[in-house]
């Protein structure tokens, strides 16, 4: 089996390296020649635990290669995956399909022999059929089927998610296409991973429904956290008490500053737009989007309140700016709403993140970047945990406190226990806990 993976962004690179581990020969294609050069040398453009070793292993085994030559990769492939970007279109929030469409037309021209063209990027319902139309238009003689195979990879644990997924969703409508997809996922079939084999539209919608549901779950617990604060309840115990009900499940019930990242914000908005377009509004998801946006702004007010109502001229130490731990990804990170709001209110911000500072520099101007968590606390009137990196979970709080101007800790991820921190003389605010 041979695979061509079009697009070596996050999804393409992880999927390509993992498929090569499963057995097929994988050629990853990108238009960015400099990126391909770097990848050939084993340099990984993104931060993802384990990916460098997996890519190196793939290259060494000869099963993983990188090229800018789309035509050659496609002509040799049994399956071509489209894993190019689908950003939100400016203005209306619809997924921007220009890269997917351009890829489809390029692929069409080089297809040889029966090939399954698979959309891997998250694409709106109907895109699979549109891709088929474009390919047929560009190359009427091509022998192909289109399949949809959405990814459910979490940044930071993407390799594990690919190798040991809860399920695989495949939209494939001919026996031939289904057989190719089954062959590609053979190791997972052997592991008895559930596979949902369905139609194109169903597979496409499943991805949006799953992400919107998870975003809803987070937003739900965040609102419960706010209520907990008012009534004097503890959201972590509420989440545990709810989550132990097997129908609810305990994951994705961590209250925090609001969800961010490359998927939830974009996919919830895209689902809202699709639903409106088809005259079947997704009102619950519309509300989730609004509540989550408002929440990120409200987090800055929480910090200001913890400082006694004003941060003008005060120094704020920030721990973590990535949208979540184990990634350098800044897309829609809560820090992008919180830090500028604090600066606008007159604060001086010192910040540290173990991986994302390089990405964050251009996005968060005026921030003083620090060497580590302790450095971020020096001279600070308040220390704010925005991202729950492991290294922030066991700080020497005595050392932290001794270098601060005032001992105030705002923990937006509920990393610490209130009694422990208060015993050390800190004023401590967290999310949804007394
Ligand atoms: C997500 C989905 O999990 C994945 O299946 C999909 O394919 C892509 O989007 P990812 O964006 O990498 O993955 O991160 P995830 O771990 O799901 O977290 C998303 C956001 O939700 C983060 O900002 C995180 O901090 C937040 N979150 C998550 C919470 O605030 N509380 C939770 O309980 C869980």
From TrEMBL:
What is this protein's name? UDP-glucose 6-dehydrogenase
Q: A GO molecular-function term, please? A: NAD binding
Record: residues binding substrate: 152-155, 207, 252-256, 260, 324
- Keywords assigned by UniProt? NAD, Oxidoreductase
> Which reaction is this enzyme known to catalyze?
UDP-alpha-D-glucose + 2 NAD(+) + H2O = UDP-alpha-D-glucuronate + 2 NADH + 3 H(+)
NCBIfam families from the entry?
Answer: NDP-sugDHase
Catalytic activity, EC: 1.1.1.22
UniProt-annotated catalytic positions: 263 (nucleophile)
Q: Which family does it belong to?
A: Belongs to the UDP-glucose/GDP-mannose dehydrogenase family.
Organism per entry: Gemmatimonas groenlandica
Q: Does the keyword section mention Oxidoreductase?
A: yes
Positions binding NAD(+) in this chain are: 30, 35, 86, 122, 155, 266, 331
């Amino acid at each position: 089996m041979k695979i061509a993976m079009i697009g070596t962004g996050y999804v393409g690179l992880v999927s390509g390296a993992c498929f090569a581990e499963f057995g097929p020969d994988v050629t990853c294609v990108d238009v960015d020649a400099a990126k391909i050069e770097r990848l050939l040398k084993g340099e990984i453009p993104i931060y993802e635990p384990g990916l460098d070793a997996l890519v190196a292993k793939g290259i060494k085994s000869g099963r993983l290669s990188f090229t800018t030559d789309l035509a050659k990769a496609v002509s040799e492939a049994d399956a071509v995956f489209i894993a190019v970007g689908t950003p939100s279109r400016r203005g209306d929030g619809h997924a921007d399909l220009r890269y997917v469409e351009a890829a489809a037309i390029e692929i069409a021209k080089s297809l040889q022999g029966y090939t399954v063209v698979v959309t891997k990027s998250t694409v709106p319902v109907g895109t699979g059929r549109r891709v088929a139309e474009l390919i047929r238009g560009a190359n009427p003689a091509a022998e192909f089927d289109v399949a949809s195979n959405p990814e459910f990879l979490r940044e930071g644990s993407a390799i594990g998610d690919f190798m040991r997924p809860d399920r695989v969703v495949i939209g494939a409508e001919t026996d031939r296409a289904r057989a190719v997809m089954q062959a590609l996922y053979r190791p997972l079939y052997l592991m008895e991973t559930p596979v949902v084999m369905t139609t194109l539209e169903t597979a496409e919608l499943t991805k949006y429904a799953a992400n919107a549901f998870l975003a809803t779950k987070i937003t739900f617990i965040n609102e419960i956290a706010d209520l907990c604060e008012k009534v004097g309840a503890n959201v972590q115990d509420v989440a545990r008490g709810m989550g132990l009900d097997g129908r609810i499940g305990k994951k994705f019930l961590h209250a925090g500053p609001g969800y961010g990242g490359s998927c939830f914000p974009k996919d919830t908005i895209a689902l809202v737009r699709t639903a409106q377009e088809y005259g079947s509004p997704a009102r619950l998801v519309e509300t989730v989007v609004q509540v989550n946006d408002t929440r990120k702004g409200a987090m800055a007010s929480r910090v200001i309140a913890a400082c006694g109502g004003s941060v003008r001229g005060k120094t704020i130490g920030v721990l973590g700016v990535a949208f979540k731990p184990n990634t350098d990804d800044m897309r829609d990170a809560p820090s992008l709403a919180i830090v500028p709001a604090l600066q606008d209110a007159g604060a001086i911000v010192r910040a540290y993140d173990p991986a994302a500072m390089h990405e964050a520099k251009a996005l968060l101007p005026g921030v003083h970047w620090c060497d580590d968590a302790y450095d971020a606390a020096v001279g600070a009137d308040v220390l704010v945990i925005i991202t729950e990196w492991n290294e922030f979970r066991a700080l020497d709080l005595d050392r932290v406190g001794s270098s601060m101007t005032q001992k105030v800790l705002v923990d937006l991820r509920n990393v610490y226990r209130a009694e422990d921190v208060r015993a050390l003389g800190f004023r401590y605010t967290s999310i949804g806990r007394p």
